[in-house]
Each structure stands twice: as structure tokens, then as C-alpha cells.
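Supplementary Methods, section 5.1.

A reviewer requested that the exact input to the structure prediction be made available. We therefore reproduce it here, unchanged from the version used in the analyses.
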Amino acid sequence: MSAVRRLIAFCVVAACPISLTALARAADSAASSTAAPSSTAAPSATAAPSATAAPSATAAPSSSGTSNAQPASTANGHQAAPPQGSAEASGAPAGHSGHPGMANGDPQADVNEASADLDPGTISATIVNDQGMPLAGQQVRLGIMFQKISEGESRSEKFAQADAQGTVQFSGLTRGSDHAYRVTVQVGSANYQTPPFNLKQDMGQRVVLHVFPSTTDSERAAFGMRGYLYVETRDDVFQCEALFRVFNVGQITWV
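The structure derived from this sequence is encoded cell-by-cell as follows.
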């Protein structure tokens, strides 16, 4: 039995001619290779000072610098209001100190509302100047438009002259949604009018219409423009329609 064991051991040694010295060298090299990472790992650990490069995070002052670049912002994030009298407060473009047509502020608002103090079917219109003073003797036009699907559309008009209080009154008018009315005053080349309105069944309509000084010099008036563009596709073409509306925004009317 011992002879058989010796024979098997001899065959194994013959098949794998590895000397003990080679095995020792292999073991040494393996030890050195496993030890090397630990030695090189140390420098990487000491390389942690690169993590101390976090001082770049102290570059956060640059972020605070950007916030300081907005002095107009308040602490709660809202922009501070421009100082009174500045170009920004007056709505004028940058570099402008305001427009002479807006020197007295925004124009006074017209009045166009239903009133229970007036008889049904009655329109009372008062014409005043930019200071709210009545304009006596001013001719006032009342435009009337009737529109019904079954009967079509028709237009008519009435005229009246303002009394000493600048007031005219139209009575006996048809009430309801089929009839629309518009009060118009023509002063020189300027045309002042209300939006179309209907008369309620149980109330009249009170109107106060302001008339402002007019000019043909665009440098003396403040006005704006609004544009509309309508595009429609038709077969292989595009049909475009443009509408531009010019409106006054100051105390002087540009005509």
C-alpha cells in the first residue's frame, strides 16, 4: 500500500515539475502584489487633501455676488418700486423722462353704466373736457344698431345738443340684446365714443364722455399700437390678414 502511494506521488511530481523554490517565489510575489495595493492605497488616502480642495466650495461668494448684483430686489424677492418721477415709474422707455402727453397722469376714465335713477329706455350722456368741466352746446350722436338673425341688421342714428351742463338725453329707446347703442362726439378731427352697449329692461344708461385736447404732432402725444395677425391655411397657400389699432394713452389726443 505504501508503494502505491509513493508511485502516485511520483507521478504527480513528474506531471507538475514545480520546485519548492518556485513555489516560494510565487508565494513571495503574491504577497508583494497584495501588499502593494495597500502601500499605494496609502498615498490615495493621503491624497485626501484634494478633498480639502473644498475651498473651491467657498467660491460660494460668487453666488452671493450675483445676488448683490440685483440691488433693486427686496429681501422677500420682490422688486422694489421705482422712485416717483423716474422714467420707469412714468412708464416711459429707458433714457426718457416721460412724455409731455402724460404729464398730468393717466386720463380720466369715462363712465358707461346702467343706472336705476334713469327711466328704462333712457340714455343720459354728459360731455366734459380733460378737467371734468362740462362742454355746453356740444353736438352728440347716438348710433343705433339693430341685429337679429331672422331679420338681419339695420343701422340708424339720433343727434342732440348738450345743455349748459354738457348733458343730452335720449328717451323712448328699445331695450334688449337686439339693439346696441354707441354715444359719439366729434371735436375737430378727433372722435370720442363709448363701446357699444345694450339697455337693460328695468334701468337706463348713464354716460360720461371725456374730450381731450388734440394734436397732429406725434411728439406731443402719447399713444400706443396693438397688432393682430390672422393666418388661415387654404389648400397649398397661407392667407394672412393684419390689423393694427392705434390708441391714445395720455392727456393729448393724437389725430
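Residues 223-254 form one domain. These observations are discussed further in the main text.
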